[in-house]
Amino acid sequence: MDTTGRKRSSLRRYAVALATSLLFAAPLAQAQNFEAVYGETDSSEFGEDVKAVNVCGGGGSVLVGTRNRGDLQDVQVSRVDNNGVELWQKTYNIAGSKRSLGQAITELSTGRGFAVTGGVWLGEGRSIYVLQIDCEGFPKWTTVLENVKREQFASGYDIIEGLGDRHFDLVLVGEENSRDNKRKWGRIARLDNGGGVLWNQFYDGLDRWPELRFRALTENIAASGAPTDLVVAGNSVSPSGLSSGLMFRTDFAGTPVCSTALNNSDQSQAYFHGVTALRSRQFTGQSVLVGLNSRVDGTGVQAYLTRFAAGSCAVITQTLWADPSGQAFRAYDVLETNDVGGSGPQLALAGTLGQPQYGAVFAASIGNLDDTPLNVNRFGIGKEMLVAIDLKSSDRVVAAGSTFSDYVGVGDPQDMYLVQTDPTLGTLCDKPWDPKVQRVEFKPQDVQAQFARIDPFERVDTPYVPVHGADIVCEVDPPENCPGVINNGIVQLGVHNTGYLNIECPAIPRSSGTNGGSLVGLRYMPTNGDAASPGSPCEGWGVASADLGITGDTSRCYGVNNMALVSFVYTTSTATSVVDVGPSKTFRVTHKFTPVPATPYLYRVDVSIQNNGSQNVADLRYTRGIDYDVPPNTFSEYITLAGSSSYVLAWNNNGFNVFNPLGGNSGTSGPFTDLGAGDQGAHIDFKLGALSPGKTLSFVTYYGAAPTEPLALGALSTVGASVYSLGQANWNGTGNPLDNLPDPFGSYGFTSGEPATFMYGFDGKSPR
After folding, report:
1. How far apart are CA 756 and CA 511, in angstroms?
2. How much is the pLDDT for 294?
3. How far apart are CA 337 and CA 279, in angstroms?
4. Is 198 left (phi over 0), alpha (psi -120 to 50) or beta?
5. I want to staple 415 with a disulfide (CB 3.0 to 4.6 A). Which of 39, 266, 276, 625 is the partner?
6. 54 phi/psi in degrees, rounded to 5
7. How far is CA 379 from CA 78, 188, 245, 371, 422, in A?
8. In this structure, are strands 113-122 and 139-145 parallel, antiparallel, or unpaired?
9. pLDDT digits (tens, 9 = 90+) for 546-555
10. What confidence score (pLDDT) does residue 165 get?
11. Rounded Cα distance, 639 and 237, in Å
12. Are 691 and 684 in contact (CB under 8 A)?
């Protein structure tokens, strides 16, 4: 684990299927994180694009793709609410054709609905279409664009609504292929808001570039600073078959301004699939294009990121992202975030990893196009892909693609797949992943293209059919009213139903500090600082029989393993979790969280472990650990492990160790005082003795926070904690610890304990 707070090991092993009907009670305003599938059971749907809904009433997200049913192909649009619940789904037969593809969608301003593009087979060839539907999915108009030659194959791949004085115009990009597939031309067209074609052009790379392929589009600041340019992502192919990543720039009339092709001479193939315009102050007018790079033989596939200068096609920086095990990794889409993870503007990307395939969502720094302190997560159970991403709100994204898994066992061959993340770009079913990043300098080449107008277009009718089919395939977090967020007026805990800390609660203010967010773990309410949730939310516990080899553990960081929920009861100030552990429910473990009457700075956690099995347990183990990320300067703190108890088997400062008591540990072994500064935690393994069948062993632990170190130590002394950990800030006492900006480092934080000292305690006299 590095010092950025990213999680790096131990895959989650479960996905909980929930009935969609259970979610209708959740309020639309409270966006949750989830993973969901959409599509009928007797057909095959694949998703191509997604947009968060910001103008049409009701919010939510809208997906577009294609439904395959025998020899028929229909455009499918699915709209869901903020919690993933289906609002409506419809399929469209463009011009009554039996074969239509849905490739891209954009939301229109002033609540006019959505515009969709793709391809439709008419006669011998396939043409680009644009379909406008209203907010309920009912068709308003459809325009079909003519090809260079009618019998050739064209499709639209991206569509946007214009800016400035062209705000209601639509612009699309796509490509057209010759029937023998030896020539490909780029296509760009501009339509007015009623579907009339203002201009429709194709772009020919001539003999030097027999293939120009346009895949994604954005509008960005032009070199003149007045009208904007169109910036296109795609690839260009040489006569020898070598593909280069292509950045193609035109003015808003479609006249080429400049173009750059990038590859590594004759050693690699490069492609761009996605593009975003940058708007943050330091990078205004620049563009980032993403895609993939591979060796010429198609192996060694890596995600490829490139940032281009404002108003030009000049390359600033390039990186490759690779899977350490050598699996293929492709980036398909990119956006500039506002404040995901509390770290200011970043890039968020959607892609697909490996074979078997997992969808991936990850963050990259804008400046260097390298990794950030945010989590890098993959999604699904090995048969998924993600190809599109959009900004859901200031601190989360939605990503869409396809799943080839039949999650609910109804014979469903393929569905649209939607992931809505929490502020760490994760869900409760994500799996951590650790890519490697390297800087590269692929050689740029100029691309010259001739262009010409294609005048004819056709207005057609589009029949539609309502369809249904949706399932949530991952535990939704949080349910209504954030159950498990409890407090005593000073200390606030977010208790998951399996007993670990860290649940999401967008209904309350984000925590303070440089990486504050909507996760609630261990908060000190007077400063709203949370020491358990920033970065990797690695707080958790585990229980095991070392002699029988039975173990189970739970955390937001590594998931719920070999454990089943029995019950979860909560009030505004208390929570009780009961779980069974082991394949035969060997252990029943209860965690009861209650305020401590003698001090406002601690929560009492009563833990009981019952042997429900038929065998004697000779060596009972319990583990509790926390990744302390202490504000205001999260990922840099001082740690203390102190006290003594015969029940402590081992303890260290690595908050990222797994919570399996039989798993390996690393880190600096305790005891120690004010160890740091660094990205640290507290991990304690307890050896509790024997437990015969039918018997229960109970002990008492504590979590809390106090404004100073003396008050924290006094609270621990009051309850008789014989072993404890402290997490304290790397802070010099100046600045404002209640905001989200970095404050100066220094020793004041660990000498005084301000602005808050976070703590965990264990009562060594209590096991019985």
Report:
1. 13
2. 95
3. 10
4. alpha
5. 39
6. -120, -15
7. 20, 34, 27, 18, 13
8. unpaired
9. 999 999 999 9
10. 63
11. 56
12. no
For residue 710, the surrounding DSSP H or E stretch is helix 709-719
pLDDT of 204 > 90? The answer is yes
When pLDDT is averaged across residues 589-618 and rounded to a whole number, the result is 97
Residue 412 or 525, more confident: 525
For residue 669, CA distances in Å to 265, 539, 650, 651 come to 51, 18, 7, 6
Chain centre to alpha carbon of residue 668: 32
Mean pLDDT of 164-172: 82
Q: Which two three-digit tokens encode residue 120?
A: 């439709």
Our CA dihedral for 30, 578, 592, 562, rounded to 10 degrees, sits at: -90
State the pLDDT confidence band at 12, using cuts at 50, 70 and 90.
very low
Q: CA torsion sign, 726 to 730 to 734 to 737?
A: negative
Q: From residue 668, give the alpha-carbon distance in Å to each of 176, 428, 636, 642, 680.
A: 61, 30, 16, 13, 10
Residue of 361, 336, 324, 308 lying closest to 438 (CA atoms): 324
Q: What is the predicted pLDDT for the residue at 2?
A: 27
User: Residue type at 165?
Assistant: D
3-state secondary structure 316-345: EEEEEEECCCCCCEEEEEEEECCCHHHCCC
Provide the pLDDT for residue 340.
Answer: 57
Q: In what helix (H) or strand (E) does residue 715 lie, and over which residues does it extend?
A: helix 709-719
The predicted pLDDT at position 27 comes to: 33
Q: For 221-240, how does the pLDDT look when each residue is reduced to its tens digit (9 = 90+)?
A: 886 666 889 999 999 999 99
Across 440-467, b (16+ Cβ under 10 Å) vs e yields: bebebbebebebeebeebeebebebeeb
pLDDT tens digit string along 412-440? 899 999 999 987 788 888 887 888 999 99
For residue 431, what pLDDT is reported?
82
Cβ-in-10-Å burial (0-12, 13-18, 19+) of 329 comes to: buried
Residues 395 and 5: their CA atoms lie apart, in Å, by 18
End-to-end alpha carbon distance in the chain:
36
Average pLDDT, the chain: 90
